[in-house]
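re: that chain from earlier
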Amino acid sequence: MRYRSLLHNFEKNDLSMSAYLVGIKHFCDSLASCNQHIYLAEQQSAIANGLPSEFDHIIQISANLAMTNQSTPLLPAYTSHPSPQSSHSNRATGFSRGRGRARFGGMS
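^ sequence. v structure.
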């Protein structure tokens, strides 16, 4: 189908990354509207193939993570662990509303 060909030949060139990804999404949505299923791996391949060589290091990192079956982003995994400084005494208790000036139920 023509949309699939356009998807696989679409290049970033001088587009912003946001505009490039919107273009990729447009082709994927167009394929879906024609009942043409497009797999995530095909979308990722089209994105990677359309990027200039300055993005090769990002593509390599992504490929390495995929090969090691690291499907979760690193940052959320890192931030989900409590920091050593956090303790129960730092948490608000009772009806404390934090540092805001307004009171629940009316003006002061």
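The chain has five helices and no strands.
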